[in-house]
Amino acid sequence: MTKPNPFKGFQSSPEIIRLAVMLYIRFPLSLRNVEDLLHERGVEISHETVRFWWRRFGPMFASEIRKRRIEGLRSSRWRWHLDEMFVKINGERHYLWRAVDHEGEVLESFVTKKRDKKAALKFLRKLMKRHGRPHVFVTDKLRSYGVALKEIGVADRQETGRWLNNRAENSHLPFRRRERAMLRFRRMRSLQKFASVHSSVHNHFNQERHLYSRENFKLNRSAALAEWRKLCSG
What we know:
Blueprint: H1 14-26, H2 31-40, H3 47-71, E1 79-89, E2 92-101, E3 106-112, H4 117-131, E4 136-139, H5 143-152, E5 158-160, H6 166-181, H7 188-205, H8 214-228
Helix pairs in contact: 1-3, 2-3, 3-7, 4-5
Pfam families: DDE_Tnp_IS240
GO molecular function, one term: DNA binding
Protein name: IS6 family transposase
């Protein structure tokens, strides 16, 4: 059974839609920045069209990326770094819980209004339902983590330390840059949706170039771009 074409009924080509969505999510650009960049390439669309495209196709692309990575056994269960970052929505503080593995791969993003035991439990259960259980949970000294891990039965796998969680702290930076370009968020639902899509796209294009020679980096970057151009192509 063939899958329905998600691009059916759109006047613009799938290539242009994928390019617009990639530019907006991957780089710290505004909707109007993307509109101007596409204009330079001879593509005349409105910034509202870019907004509609990323909302319509962003989750679809992210879901396919996650599916391919899980099928390719790219998700690590060795050491996970957990951390929460402050995000303001209409001036009110919320918390974006994030989990990354030892290579900086973003495993999960989850938005809550509080950072208590209930929120930590919900985040951990969602994380482990999708990725299983790791050998080690690296966290900061927030007590909610310890209580939640104890209830799940993996308290003996928790590690805390002054610099042990730098991997998670550094992984916040790309999202922070993106948040500033978007002038923050107005709804929890919008934040959850964008954080989920952004993490998948970041994983896809994150090549950790400092670990490779220039030649290998170019090959990996080209492979990632080629794979992106085939998303949702059937």
